[in-house]
Every structure is written in structure tokens, then in C-alpha cells.
Structure prediction request, 509 residues.
Amino acid sequence: MHTSSPLKKEFLKKWMEGLQICCSSKKQMNVLERKKKIKLSADIAMASAKKTPMSWSNAIISDARKKEDDTILIDKLLGPEYSQFKVQKSTYRMMSCNKRVQCKKILKRSSYMSGGKRTKTKKKMGVSVIAKRLVKKRTKVLKRLVPGGESMDEFSLIKEALDYILSLKVQVDVMRSVVTATEILSDVKLLKSVVE
Amino acid sequence: MERREEIGVESFQFGEEIQSLMSVVQPPEAGNSFTALLELPPNQAVKLLHSPEETTPNIFPSVFAVIETDNSLETTSSIRPNSSPNDCNFVKQEPIDSDSLHNSSPMESDPVISISAKRKEREKKVKSSAKKSKNVADETDGEKLPYVHVRARRGQATDSHSLAERARREKINARMKLLQELVPGCNKISGTAMVLDEIINHVQSLQRQVEFLSMRLAAVHPSIDINLDNMFSAESGSLMDCNFGAMVSSLDGQMNENSHQHQHLWQVDGLPPQPLWGEEEVNPFITPENSLLSYDSSGTSGCLHTNQLKMEL
Prediction:
């Protein structure tokens, strides 16, 4: 496995901090809300534990900040200056990328409407065109999956996906070990109470 | 349009950087200069790979230097003799370069970078040797982009757009190979669409695992109230698993119970969730549990006085 333990430790620390902040709010939450909070703090911990900020991590943080419930948590966890800086950078990039995407769409639509492409494609409707369509479909799906991937070109999307997969693996490993440990401990406690 | 040219420029900066470094050290003297070259390219190449956008300001001065020297010679006839020795040395350079890259990059995101460096080097090696073996049609983009010295392969379009397009595609393919190595079971699949399919499945399964794990954690204790003082105090540079194992096994010793009872309990508890999560979750759960219980408690029992979990029963 390529995962590194300093990253794991960093992630764990931040996650635990986030959880402690969550439970300091003293609300009675049901299971689903708890789960959401846990997942949220895990995601933010993962995004902020990276040493070199990638755009998916910025995207996670900026998305979470938009929802009003969680801004307090995020600000406490990350520190106010840090998160503001990230938000500015990511929104600027996204705006420019969205404009580019929209312009491309307009161009495509106009060329399609003018019917310029139809005469040539009849001959060449072969394997390559089908393959290209498949690849395009897949890249659309991947863009939806990777956070912040909507406004990215193919090349950086692949880089982001690489990084995202790596950190997801780290996240899953850490969470799994924490969960198994807490389950064992809770069983032990249960037994203890039963025995006594 | 601009974007493509930008990307084309970026992609050739890497090659240009190496060529510029080589031209500095007089390529015809092949044997001795390589060892000197070896120190320079790895660090810079690794930096380049990791953050191509960030290092563009550094690259441009050297690229412009190369361009200025080359512009004076820039007629079609003179470029041939000028660039063919570069090509030879480029090809020879690469096996050594890839080895040195692999060895000399001890950073945190090391595996990704070293693998990507290796793969990129191999890609370029294949590409440039292919260029050499076919009878190369000479071509420069000198009019539009002064710093793109491209060799077009025989029988392919020499339009600047298609060249940039090809460069972009090759970059994408190199990265796809990296991804293939990362995702298990992707090495045998050929074809971009299928590989992307696998990648998408992998990402989705990882995300689902995160969701389920957080659900389990939420279900385990009614209040998110984990007291982790002991975890952080016991964390003396060892892995987390060791800490958990120490905690668990010292609890074990306190209660005078067999490990069998633990396992039995845990498996009973673990059975209902299994059908939800499928087989991939089952095996890893049981084996870390065994490994946890087999660790010795090495003097961390003092930490247990601070309570681990506050359960509301």
C-alpha cells in the first residue's frame, strides 16, 4: 500500500477534533444526523490533512461552507483565514472554467445546427467514434463523482481522480480501524456491565 | 484554441527542459556528462511532474534561452543536424534518468511521483525511439510557437493543432496508465473506456465504504463522545493499530476474559451488517481484529484509567 502513516495520523487528529467540536453542541441527535456529522468531519479532515491542497479538497471545503449549519464547525476546525483564502481561489477558477465550458457548448450547438458535420460523419461512423462517445460518457460520470470535477478539463481531472482515490483509501483505512476499535470496546463494556 | 497551444507548450516544456540541460553540457561527450546530468534532472523533473503549472515561471527563462540560440539556426536544413544528436542522447538518457528518478525522490507523495516519472520516461522513450526508427518528416512549428520543436511521425499531419492534440492525448494516456496501476485489477484491461469504468467503480465503492463506516460509528455509541486522551498520549510514533491493540488487550487482561469470547461476541454482532456490505468488508474485519488482540500491552495500561468511551446504557 502506498498510504503513508503521517497522513493517516494527521487525518485522525483532525477528525477527532471535528468530532469533539460536534459533540460539544449538546444536541440530542438521531442516528442519521450523527452519521452525517461524522462523515462531514471525516471529509473535511481528509481535505485539510493534505499537505499540498488540490482542487477537490478545496471543493469539499467550499461546498461544506455553503451550508450554514456546518460553517461553525469548519471555521473552528480549520481556522478562519485558511478557509477564506481557499474559497476565493477555488471560486475564481470555477467561474473561469464554467465560462469556458459554456462557450464550448454554444459553439458546438451552433455548428451542429448549421449541419456542417453531417456530410462527413456518415462515412466515418466507425469504431473510433463509438469509442470516443463511450469515453466521453465515462468522463462525465467521473466528473460528477470527484468533488470539484465539474469545471475541469480531462487532463487535470485524471490527476485529481488519482489524488482523490489515494486519500479515499487512507480515509477508509483509518475509519475502519477506528470503527472496529470502538465496536470492540463497546462490546467489552457491555460484557462488563452484564457480568457485574 | 489558445488552451491547446498552452497545453502543447506545457507538454513540450518537459522535453525541452531535458534538452536544454543536455545542450548545456555538450551532448557529443556522452559518457562523462551523464553523471553530471543525473543530479540536475531528477529534482527538476520531479518538480515538473508534480506541479507543472507552478513551475512554469521557472521553466520559461531556460526555454527562451534555448529558443534564442536555436532561432539563429532556424532554417529547415540546419535543424536536422542540430537536433539529431539531441535525439540520440535523449534516447540514451532516459533509462538512466528513470532509474535515478526512481531512486532519488524520497518525498511523501513519493510513490505517485516516482511511478509517474518512471512511466512518463518510458512513454517518452518509446515515443522518441519510434520517431527515430521511422523516417522522420522534418517539421517545426517555428512560425506560431517559437519554442515547440516537434518531430512529426511519418504519414501524420503536421498541423500545429493536430500536433498539440496529439501531445495532449499522449499526456492523458500517460496519466491513465498511472491510474491503471493505482486501481486494482486494471492492469489487464486495455482501452480507455473500460479503464475509466473500473476507476469509476472503484471511486464509488470507496465512497460507499466511507458512508457505511460512518453509519456504523454513529450506531455504535449514542453520543459522539469519544475520549481520546489515551490514544494521543500513547501515540509515540507507532502505528495506530498498535495503540488500539494495546488498549484492547490490556482491557482484556483487566477483565480476565478469553480472547475467544471477544471474537465470538464481535462476530455475532458483525453478522447482521454483512449482507449489506458484501464480502469485501468481511475478511478485513476479522483479520485486523485478530491482529489487534494479539499485541502485547507494553506498559500502556496506565492510560486506561482515563475512560475510553462513555456509553449510555
